[in-house]
Specification:
TIM Barrel; alpha/beta; 2 domains; DNA polymerase, domain 1; ten-stranded mixed β-sheet; 384 residues
């Protein structure tokens, strides 16, 4: 356990003793809960294990349901703690079964989570922030700007509530992807804490091979993710030169392709594990066969697979989806050269639940997004 986690538990225990602030129990791992109950209420460690199981195995929504905890402990927790930070609001189901779940959180923000059914493989796409600060010009969520990071409890509770809402009707959720609203590694502390809860075999019990964290390329946090977890990594690449990538992904101005690829070469992988490179195909921006060759060059010495994503249109965007013929040629070029490549099927577009479509931006984009979009439009006009 890191000193940072230790300080967090100690601070929470003090708040519980004093009753100065409500503590959200889903902010803590099982080991944290053992310490928390010991330091706050002098309870034995196994009470933390029991509490953890009530939260995630039994999915209890009230302390009174936790019948193997003493009445006195339940009363203390009722006064000083809570277990359900997100308020379920609505579902929006597409004809293909993809379902967007919306939740209200503290301060009035809305979190969107997407359930994606498939034969033998149901996936939940979860969010890590309300909005996003990174300003990728093709992404609808970026037009919101960043309202705030989600807390650990708010990340975990998306999974808990989705299991309650969707599993009985649609089957087991076995895969988690951090590909919803926000940049997960911009909120790396809470994302890593949430991963520990998701993996715990006495809790949500996901396999590490079934959890994927996607990032646009926050290099220091990539290194930390590899050191502190053993889940799968996906990189939102989307361009093959620094010039184009900086035009559509401002993070590339901070960590360019050379630095990003070096971090990925150092990322710890077990045998047969691969990094996924996500590549949103944008018409006349990154969809040439020269781009396809540069993908090969960039990833040549990195165990990897390429996930091609047709651009999903949304309001107020200058970008377009390439023709089917152009996308097929791009895919074939990679496949013919023995690259592991697959096309992501668009799901949930009718309910704005597809990749890059989440969130509710205001009438104007944040200034940094407007500047990038204006430059892109000017460059397109000059090259027309």
């Amino acid at each position: 356990m890191t000193s940072q986690a230790t300080d967090r538990v100690t601070d929470a225990a003090e708040r519980l003793r004093e009753g100065s602030q409500i503590v959200d129990l889903k902010d803590f791992s099982r080991a944290d809960l053992r310490r928390l109950l010991k330091e706050a209420f002098n309870e034995p460690g196994f009470r933390g294990d029991q509490l953890f199981q009530w939260l995630y195995v039994h999915r209890a929504e009230a302390f009174d349901d936790m019948t193997n905890l003493s009445k006195s402990l339940r009363a203390k927790l009722q006064d000083k703690a809570r277990i359900s930070p997100l308020e379920f609001k609505d579902t929006h189901e597409s004809p293909d079964g993809t379902t967007k779940l919306t939740f209200g959180c503290d301060g009035g923000g809305v979190v969107e989570t997407v359930y994606i059914p498939a034969e033998g493989r149901n996936t939940l796409c979860i969010s890590s922030q309300v909005g996003c600060a990174l300003g990728c010009t093709f992404c609808y969520t970026a037009k919101m700007g960043l309202t705030r990071h989600l807390k650990t409890a708010e990340i975990v509770d998306q999974v808990v509530q989705a299991r309650r809402l969707m599993t009985e009707r649609n089957g087991h959720i076995g895969n988690i992807v951090f590909m919803g609203m926000g940049e997960p590694l911009h909120n790396v502390d809470n994302v890593i804490n949430a991963i520990h809860v998701l993996l715990d075999e006495d809790g949500l019990n996901f396999s590490r091979r079934k959890i994927t964290v996607s990032t646009s390329g926050m290099v220091p946090a990539i290194r930390r993710l590899g050191e502190e977890t053993d889940v799968q990594l996906a990189i939102s690449l989307n361009a093959t030169t620094d010039k184009t990538r900086s035009e559509i992904m401002p993070i590339n101005d901070r960590w360019g392709l050379d630095e990003l690829m070096e971090a990925l070469r150092e990322f710890p992988l077990d045998n047969r594990e691969r990094i996924t490179f996500e590549y949103v195909l944008l018409k006349d921006v990154n969809d040439t066969l020269d781009d396809a060759q540069r993908i090969i060059d960039l990833t040549r010495d990195i165990p990897s697979k390429i996930n091609l994503i047709p651009f999903n249109p949304h309001p107020r965007t200058p970008f377009k989806t390439p023709s089917e013929e152009r996308m097929a040629a791009f895919t074939k070029y990679l496949s013919d050269r023995n690259v592991s490549v697959y096309r992501r099927r668009t799901r949930g577009q009718e309910e704005m639940a597809a990749c890059g479509q989440l969130g509710k931006p205001g009438e104007k984009e944040p200034p940094h997004v407007r500047r990038k979009l204006a430059k892109f439009r000017d460059d397109q006009a000059a090259n027309a």
